[in-house]
Here is the input.
Amino acid sequence: MKIVLTGKPGIGKTTVVKKVAERFKDRAKGFYTEEIRDRTGRRTGFKAVSLDGREVLLASKEGSSPFKVGSYSVFVEDFERFAVPILKEALEEGTPLIVIDEIGKMELFSDNFEKAVREVFSAEDVNVVATVPLKNFHPVVSWIKRRPDSLLIEVNRENRDGLPDRIVKMLEKSL
Here is the structure.
């Protein structure tokens, strides 16, 4: 089962993913993204966090990179060295659930990440919970949304609190 969450920024996609991953802690591999904020609460960047607790800086307002999204420099090589092995290892080991939060602009600067995502989604009998933006800004996002085995769910204020339990019930049948 491939469950793909989409929705507006800040609506709660990552929160849903984290709650689902927590329920399958010993049977899941992957990562999620989190904001980094300074002492005043101002967002200064983003980090990727593996389900086993490792972290890498994905983007920051400080530092320099040729890859930019708005005022953020995106550290593509660091992210790639972090995320791609997680996804490949999960596939090789036959991990029951692969979590990918998020397949977005920053992450898709990496061609190797895109290839790994395509491998994960193309693998049969692999359960995935992933997040993608609402807009089809990249061919791989459109491809994921159009796949007949992708269950696309838009996260909104009305459904976000109940989604983790709903997704867990769906996954329990295939894990």
